[in-house]
Amino acid sequence: MERISLGHGEGGELTHQLIHDVFIRSFDHGEQARLDAAIISSSSEQIAVSTDSYVVDPIFFPGGDIGKLAITGTVNDLAVTGAVPKVITAAFMIEEGFPIRDLKHIVKSMAQEAEKAEVKIIAGDTKVVERGSVDGIFITTTGIGAIEQSYLNPESMKKGDAVIINGTIGDHGIAILSARKQLGLMTNVTSDCASLNQLIQNILRRTKGIRAMRDLTRGGLATGLVELCEDFNSTMEIEEAALPIRDEVKGACEILGFDPVYLANEGKTVIIVDANEADLVLDILHKDEYGADACLIGHVTAVTEQTGKLKLKTPVNTTRRLSRLSGMVLPRIC
User: Fold this and answer.
1) How confident is the model at residue 144 (pLDDT cuts 50, 70, 90)?
2) N or C of the chain: less Cβ packing under 10 Å?
3) InterPro entries recorded for this chain (predicted)?
4) What is the reported pTM?
């Protein structure tokens, strides 16, 4: 009998199989399964809807906490579809004995981040369960955004399109691991946890050639790009030497045997854009606090009728194919 493993929650190949074999097959999501949020058309406008749950361990970490993470994660899932996030609902599952002081801190973080992102928390629910039934606190959110204009069309990706990321990768994963103190890893890395909706809207309103975006969370940069390649039959090549990685993250990965391209992020998006507008996008990013370290990391090399591939070009001029994250790197990362 097959059973759920921690690897099914890591955002990699096992997660992909679970979603497609169980949920998509049963709920008939169709084309919507390829996006970070579902697009719903009404008589007057389109809206985007996204639901997510947050079980991060520990609940307080350098750069944020589970409350801030719940808002930024929901906001970013909506933003990368081209939607303007408007409202969020939040449900709390709290373990008996959880400190009220910590709950107040978490809720305050949510309120502050929502205000910063210009979204409203409009409804919610609270359940308290017996001690041992939940590890402290879990939060589930649903976000709704309005698509004011259809900026994105992943189907329009073409050979030569630029692949851009708004900053360094792997920060959240290493920050969480350091906070756990399980492996004696001590770093000064803080989570990149941030709401990117205003940055993304600034880019979309000033450009015309954005093809697609992807919120890079579980499974990291590699998994996010593999999903785009496979879902939209595009082959991309990224350059290892061009990837923005902090020295502290590199050092931690060397010690622990991790590959930075598979580490989780919580304030990073990858942007596929017409090569003619790559410099403009980078200029916009560099003027924003959440895009100061943005860089061009690769290009779309082919668009075919067959399933696309993601390739990594190494500093010695060889290439290797990257796949989704396989197995478990860090459980309960978000």
Assistant:
1) very high
2) N
3) HypE, PurM-like_C_dom, PurM-like_C_sf, PurM-like_N, PurM-like_N_sf
4) 0.88
CATH 3.90.650.10 domain residues, the chain: 154-322
Output the pLDDT for position 28.
Answer: 64
Residue carrying structure tokens 């039959």: 233
CA proximity to 255, closest of 315, 314, 185, 331: 185
- Secondary structure (H, E, C), the chain: CCCCCHHHHCCCHHHHHHHHHHHHHHHCCHHHHHCCCEEEECCCCEEEEEEEEECCCCCEECCEEHHHHHHHHHHHHHHCCCCEEEEEEEEEEEECCCCHHHHHHHHHHHHHHHHHHCCEEEEEEEEEECCCCCCCEEEEEEEEEEECCCCCCHHHCCCCCEEEECCCCCHHHHHHHHHHCCCCCCCCCCCCCCCCHHHHHHHHHHCCCEEEEEECCCCHHHHHHHHHHHHCCEEEEEEHHHCCCCHHHHHHHHHHCCCHHHCCCCCCEEEEECHHHHHHHHHHHHCCCCCCCCEEEEEEEEECCCCCCEEEECCCCCEEEECCCCCCCCCCCC
Q: Residue 133 is which amino acid? A: S
Stronger pLDDT, 30 or 302, i.e. the higher one: 302
In 10 A of CB 91, how many CB atoms?
16
Cα separation, 152 vs 40, whole angstroms = 15
The angle at the Cα of 133, spanning 15 to 64, to the nearest 5 degrees, equals: 65
Give CA separation, 142 vs 193, 224, 241, 253, 311, in Å.
18, 21, 38, 33, 34
User: Which superfamily does 36-147 belong to?
Assistant: PurM-like, N-terminal domain (3.30.1330.10)
Q: Boundaries of CATH 3.30.1330.10 in the chain?
A: 36-147
Lowest mean pLDDT of 11-15, 155-159, 169-173, 234-238, name the range.
11-15
154-322 CATH choice from 3.40.80.10, 3.40.50.1980, 3.90.650.10, 3.40.50.300: 3.90.650.10
The share of the chain scoring above pLDDT 70, in percent, equals 89
